[in-house]
Design goal:
41% of the residues lie in helices and 17% in strands. By secondary structure, the protein is an alpha/beta fold.
Length: 335
């Protein structure tokens, strides 16, 4: 059960884009994230905030922005239900609003003002795409740009099996999880599961349905900070971050759960029989290689080889500096 606190957005036409912002105790960076969302040049959008019973200033910050912008809808859970149920919750609320496109937003990441508009343009030019995303930058806790994610595996393979292989082997953060997605395809998936790493499983399911289109500009920035999930090393803590209701024993079953989830995703998809066979072969190869790497102490070796093969093409140097500045948190504060 959840206690919902709702601000009614304009009851005219359904928004074309819904942005879901699941958050728990996000006072440290939430205001910057909201600013970057509300500053989008694409204005036919609404924001759904799912507050996981935060005990800090999260609610106060959100309410202050609700007073300034009626595109924000706010829901507060009675207790912390975990990240995965909260991510799914904000999507389900977007589904009820009749949106065409959906994007998850983290409380600690930033978008350049043209991010949503550019991604929507990519999706509308190519109906076969499931997701649109831009090149991504990385930044430190204080907002200083520290690099980019061009070295990661791109997820735009020509076949379902190719895309499935790429997401299974991606060793890093796959920031495409924060791209703009087609709602009609998302609703065909099981969304995010209640086990560590289920965001990868969801992405695998989406990539069985379509490819990723990229905006060749740096319009998205992922923040690294000590409280980020990626710095959790304890398996139980990781599991409870995803879903607070899961038995702790499940923390040690994440591997088998991922394999079963992936296999079930392949079987239940609308792909033809041959495509399903190819995807299952990819899954079997992934499992055997991962087992071999574990036994030989070479974890991540094959994934790094694929990064070299499928990483983003290098942009001309003169095209890089200018797009960085709009997503620099310090620059935004000075504006």
């Amino acid at each position: 059960m959840q206690l919902s606190i709702l601000r009614s957005a304009p009851a005219t036409l359904a928004p074309k884009v819904m942005i879901g912002l699941p958050v728990y105790n996000g006072e440290n960076y939430l205001e910057q994230a909201l600013q970057s969302i509300l500053a989008q040049t694409y204005t036919n959008l609404q924001v759904i905030v799912g507050d996981n019973a935060s005990s800090d200033r999260t609610e106060e910050i959100i309410r202050s922005y609700m007073a300034q912008d009626d595109r924000i809808l706010y829901y507060r859970h009675e207790h912390n239900i975990g990240a995965a149920p909260n991510y799914n919750f904000v999507f389900q609320k977007a589904l009820e609003r009749g949106a065409t496109y959906f994007k998850w937003a983290a409380h600690d990441d930033l978008m350049a003002p043209s991010f949503v508009e550019s991604c929507v343009e990519v999706l509308e030019r190519n109906p076969s795409l499931a997701i649109a995303h831009s090149r991504a930058l990385s930044m430190e806790a204080d907002g200083e740009i520290s690099g980019n994610f061009d070295y990661e595996i791109r997820l735009d393979g020509k076949t379902a099996a190719d895309r499935f292989m790429r997401i299974m082997w991606t060793p890093g953060y796959f920031t495409e999880i924060f791209g703009v997605m087609r709602v009609d395809l998302m609703r065909q998936t099981r969304l995010q599961g209640s086990f560590a790493g289920s965001d990868r499983s969801f992405m695998a399911e989406m990539l069985l349905l379509g490819s990723v289109g990229y905006v060749e500009r740096y319009l998205f920035t992922r923040r690294d900070h000590p409280q980020a999930y990626c710095h959790m090393k304890n398996k139980t803590a990781q599991l409870l971050w995803y879903d607070t209701s899961r038995p702790k024993l499940m923390a040690y079953l994440a591997g088998p759960l991922k394999v079963w989830y992936a296999l079930e995703s392949i079987v239940r998809t609308s792909l033809n029989g041959w495509d399903k066979v190819q995807c299952i072969e990819m899954l079997m190869e992934w499992g055997m290689r991962r087992t071999w790497e574990t036994l030989t102490g070479t974890q991540g070796h094959y994934g790094q080889q694929l990064c070299q093969k499928f990483s983003a093409p290098t942009l001309p140097t003169q095209e890089m500096p200018e797009p960085m500045r709009p997503v620099n948190a310090i620059a935004m504060q000075e504006a």
